[in-house]
Amino acid sequence: MKKFLLLTFGILMFSVWINAQVPVNEAPPLDAPPYDAPPDPVGVRPIEVYPLSVTRETVYDPPPVTVRYSPDVFGELRANTLPGSFAHDAAWSLQNNFGFSLGAQEGYYFGDNSQSSSATSLSAGVFTNYSSGKSAMHLDYGTDYSFYPERQNSADDINHSVNAAYVYRFNNRASFQLRDQFTSSSNDPLSDLFSINASSGRLMAGSYYYDLILSPQRYTRNTVTTSLSADVTGKGTNLNIFGSYENYWYGDQSSVTGMMKDFYSATIGARINQRITSWMSLGTSYSLQLNDDLKENQAHRVEIGRFQFDLSPNVQVYASGGVVITDSSSNNEGYRVNTQARTGISWSTEIARLYAEYSRTMISVSGYRRLLPSDTFLAGLGAPIGDRVNVRVSGYYQRSSDSLYSGRLNSYTAQASMEYLLVPGLAASGNYTYRYQKNSISSLGTIPYAERSTISGGLRYNWPSRRR
After folding, report:
1. How far apart are CA 161 and CA 153, in angstroms?
2. Quick one: which of 183, 200, 221, 171 has its CA closest to 77?
3. Number of Cα atoms under 13 Å in the Cβ half of residue 56
4. Residues 202-235: tens digit of each pLDDT
5. pTM of the complete model
6. Fold of the 2-18+50-463 domain
7. What residues does each domain of the chain span?
8. Tens of pLDDT along 343-378?
9. What is the DSSP string of 92-136?
10. Residues near 153 by Cβ (< 8 Å), separated by ≥ 6?
11. 86 and 15 Cβ atoms separated by less than 8 Å
């Protein structure tokens, strides 16, 4: 506690000193003429972004959501992030070519079959942005160091996060995107807060893979995604070719289970969307998911009748159905045909987002050679409340079964955070996370039961402090 108080006092003094050196942008005088935003460039195609989920970081061919507020090329990258934090405002403002953040938190956790205890966490992040007429790039790195004064015979923990995003717009009808997301987490209670306090609000999107709670166990993931999108006719027919490659590494496989192993997967696919009216579009997609040695555990996903209804420039409702054909020859299961479906609603502005989605599809359990029929429900909100308060709330429920074995794999996650701006750049925050995991499928019998909650509070300084 003494270390935390000293660090908190140091961050407070540092922020006061920085703000004394940097002039604050003053508001325009009352008699200044009103600002008129420039009109949207003629012919600029709407930006396609992905509906968000809550704890995943992997894009899985989600339905596009049209956002009309950001015609600039950097907006294509920023639209794939979740607002609701001052760190996000600083990191995803094109006015800021470079910036950093520093934070300190005191946390209290209980669960994971251990007695409740406290922990102190120090975090830091750095980012850079670049944009030209046709291309844009964003890079950020975040790290978090946690130490547990009340835990005996346990090493302190450190987490890392790297996010890189690049977009190139060939013309008003075609663009290319490339993203790389890397995380390395100790999978302990305090690391659940790391995604909340990372320097940028990265896209949290749905995934075809389970993120298991295996504490204490370092869990490292690297995901590369790419897409090429073009309006092939100039009359609302959009073709998108996409792909991804994912790696999962476990720090000590033998300490968890003999079945657990490092895991990789590749996905490639295409989708086509046709604008039928100004408020409705219809699409179809196909993708092939290859797991492990690229010869077994394949999943062919066909989505037919992907309807999207634009109720307003900021509100979209979507629904789709289809089938998943899996080849699990390694498990002597052969081919299986399963239904898949997805429906949801999304409300988006430049500074806020609200979403809810239900989906049913086949999901891989990371580290295990199993493809499970799964139901997922997720919802979330990220938005400012006035000029001094930011709020993020999100949660999901996931339930899976097995075609050959009885039982279920259930998991819940909930996250909430609130920030209050004390002085320009310096904000106080309160955070809460809850995670639950329970398995009764015999083929996955070594997945442990887990339930834990973490509450924390602290300070975070972001420079520059300008909001977009």
Report:
1. 26
2. 200
3. 26
4. 444 456 666 677 666 777 889 899 999 999 888 8
5. 0.78
6. Porin (2.40.160)
7. 2-18+50-463
8. 999 998 878 889 899 999 888 776 566 778 899 998
9. T-TT-SEEEEEEEEEEEEEETTEEEEEEEEEEEEEEEEEE-SSEE
10. none
11. no
